[in-house]
Specification:
The chain is mostly beta strands and 148 residues long. It has a single domain, classed as Beta Barrel (Lipocalin), CATH 2.40.128.520. 9% of the residues lie in helices and 43% in strands. Strands 1, 2, 3, 4, 5, 6, 7, 8 and 9 form a 9-stranded antiparallel β-sheet that branches. The radius of gyration is 20 Å and the shape is globular.
Length: 148
């Protein structure tokens, strides 16, 4: 019985029609510049801009808080050790999975640690990013408001 049921669903799928390339909607990309705010003071720490590199979505530091323009990633390791923060990618490896940008990584410049990440939502005035270890349940959601 189970084999017949599976066969029915397979046939239904095969004859349900095909999707033409023009039918697939372009994935939404966070456009513009977004702010990373200090958790305590809510002052701007940096401005970040998303960009695409092939099928990958990335985000880089576009501007730093006044007085920190020459700051470096002192806590980072490997090739990021002591690299200037200005122009550095904070997010890389995000790919569109059909419903969201996922499978990427995000750098915490304060600790030098790299976490997995995905974008939960892209709104008119903010982007919501989930950074996590292992499973998204074990993480933190960051909300970056759009710069005005």
């Amino acid at each position: 019985m189970l084999i017949k049921l599976f066969g029915f669903f397979l046939l239904a799928f095969m004859f349900s029609g095909t999707i033409a390339p023009g039918d697939i909607e372009s994935p939404p990309v966070p456009e513009g510049v977004f702010l990373i705010l200090d958790d305590g003071t809510q002052e701007m720490r940096s401005k970040v801009e998303f960009y695409r590199q092939g099928n990958e979505l990335r985000a880089r530091i576009k501007e730093l808080k006044e007085g920190y323009e020459n700051a470096r990633c002192e806590q980072c390791t490997d090739e990021l050790k002591n690299k200037k923060l200005m122009g550095m990618d904070l997010i890389w490896g995000l790919e569109w999975d059909g419903s969201r940008w996922s499978g990427g990584e995000i750098l915490d410049v304060d600790s030098g640690k790299i976490y997995r990440c995905r974008i939960n939502s892209i709104g008119d005035n903010q982007v919501e990013i989930r950074g996590y270890v292992g499973s998204p349940i074990f993480g933190e959601t960051l909300v970056w408001p759009r710069a005005r």
